[in-house]
Structure formats: structure tokens, C-alpha cells
Predict the structure.
Amino acid sequence: VFIFGFVKFIKIWFENQQVTQKLEKEKLEAEIKFLRAQMNPHFLFNVLNNIYSLALKKSDRTPDMILRLSSMLDFLLYETNADFIPIEKELKLINDYIELEKLRYGNRLDFEFNMEKIDSSIMISPLLLFPLIENSFKHGASNELSKSWIKAKLNISENALNFLVENSKSN
């Protein structure tokens, strides 16, 4: 009876462990899907309207802005499926986003992004840094009626990635 009970206990414990691992994996996948879907449709419409405005003015910047938007959409649709990506890809996404937002805000935005030389072999989870930049615009610059600013600083040491984002905020 003792051996049977012990075997039954081990079997139940093992099944519970499998269920727990499966739930944790599903939760992680849901969080990743949420991050992928986080690109604000309002931002997309604003960018398209700004590009349209450039096209009407026959601006030389129009092709570059279309290419940046295309690059961002490509990243969000295809690159985020991987568990890890080179940090350079995330930084390119951020740079494209910043340039598109600068188009939107014009002279009323001061943006400063400082980073040390980045080792291209560093791998990070997709969309690890991007939401911080996106939120600095969404909750700072977009609420400002006059001059706004955003400062970002990226520093990578042996075992640490430090990313500081600050923005102006109206009272």
C-alpha cells in the first residue's frame, strides 16, 4: 500500500509539474503576442498622414519615411517570432520609430539618444527596449502642447544592460 501510494503521489506530482510548465509557457507566449500587437494604430495613421503630407509637398524625405515604416512593419511582423535577436535589430527599429516621430513633432521635440559602442553579438528578446521609447512619446511628448524633450541612454557592461528613458511631462 505504501509503495502504491508513493508511486501514485509521484505520478500526480509529475503531472502537476507538466501542467504548471505548460501554463507558464502559454503565459509567456501571450505576453509576447501582446507586445507584438502593441504598435498603436493611432501612430500608424499619424505616420501615414505625415508621409502623405510629404508626398503632397513632393519632399525628398518621402521615400526614406516610407522605407522606415516598411522596415518597422517588417520587424514587427517577422523578426519578433524569434526568442532572441541581435540588439542591433532592435536599435534599428527604435531609430526608425524616432525618425518617424520626429517627422510628426517637428521642431517642438528635442530627442537625445546616447549609447556606447554596442557589441553586435549581444542578443536580446525582441521588443525589450522599444516599448520604453514608444511610451516616452505616448505619455510625454504627445501630451505636450509646446516644446517637449526625450532623453534615452543605453549602456551595456559585462552582464548588465541599462536603458534609461526620460521625457518631459506636462503637469
